[in-house]
Amino acid sequence: MSTENTTTPPALPDVTAAAAPRAVRYAKFTIGYNVVEGVIAVSAGLVASAVSLVGFGIDSGIEVAAAAVVLIRLLAEIKGGEPDEAKERRALKFIALTFFALAAYVTVEGIRDLVAGEEPNTSIVGIVLTGLSIIIMPWLARAKRKAGLEMNSRLVVADAAETKLCAWLSVSTFAGLLAFALFGWTWLDPVAGFVIAAFAVMEGKEAWEGELVCEDDKAEAASGKSCSDDCH
Fold it and tell me: How far apart are CA 78 and CA 14, in angstroms?
C-alpha cells in the first residue's frame, strides 16, 4: 500500500465565479451604509451621552475598514491579480484585530458604565437607526457568507462574520436604548455588551488563525463534512 501523502492543497478563491461581482457589490454597500450609520450613531450618541451608541458608531467604522480590505483584495484579483494566500492571511489578521479592538472598547466602556452608574438620555434617533440595522445587517451577513462560500473565499466569509457581529451589536444597542427609554434600565446595555465582546474575541481568534470560514452547523456535523473542506 502506498504511503505517499495525497492530501489536496487548500483551494484558492475562485475570483471568476459568478459570486465574485456580488461580493464586490456587498462590500461597496457595506462601506457606504456604515459610513452614514457611523456618523449618525456617533453624533447621536454624543448628544445623548449614550456610550453604547457611540460604540455602535465605532463598530460601523471597523466594519468600513474590514470591508475596504476585502474590496481592495477582490478588485485586484478580479482584474487579473493572482490570489495570494499570504496576503489573504494578512487581511484576515487585520480583520481579527478589528474584532479584538471592538471587544476591548465594549468591555472597558461597559465596566465604566456599571461602576459609574452612567445614565444616558433617551435617543430616538439611536433607536430608529439600530432598529433599521437589525433588519439590514443580518440580510447582508447572510448574502456575504453565501457569496464567500460560493467563490471559496475565506476573506469574504470572515467579513460576513464581522457583519454578523454588527447585527448582534445592533440588537444589543437597540435593546439597551429601548429598555432605558421605556423602563429606565441602565444595566442591560453594558451587560449585553459583554456578551458581544466575548463573541468578538471568539470570532477574532478564528480569523487570526485563518479558520473563520463557517458557523457551527448541525447539518454539516451530521454529514461529517467540516467547514474547512469547502473554504480553506
Answer: 9
